[in-house]
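Sharing a chain and its predicted structure for anyone who wants a worked example. Both blocks are below, sequence first, tokens second.
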Amino acid sequence: MKLSSDKVKKACRRNNLTLGEAIDQAGVSRTAYYSLLRKESVLPRSVLALADFLKIEPGELLERTVRPEIRTRLLLAKLEQIMSRNPPANR
């Protein structure tokens, strides 16, 4: 699977962040981010090899889990969006 700069930027816009803010707050260095963009795949070769052998997409072998701290940050971001649209609302 290849990292899509368009999808990353779109996600940043949805969260009212610049790309720089997003990668800084995520703890990813700019060098690492741009290095990932240049790679044909950001998945380990073993996952790609297994998926290729099984004739399936690599994503079908991966679990999509969201760590609790990430889920909490996502929920807080949604809360902030709601609060900004409804100033008199009580948290």
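Comments welcome. The helical segments are 5-14, 19-26, 30-38, 45-54, 68-85.
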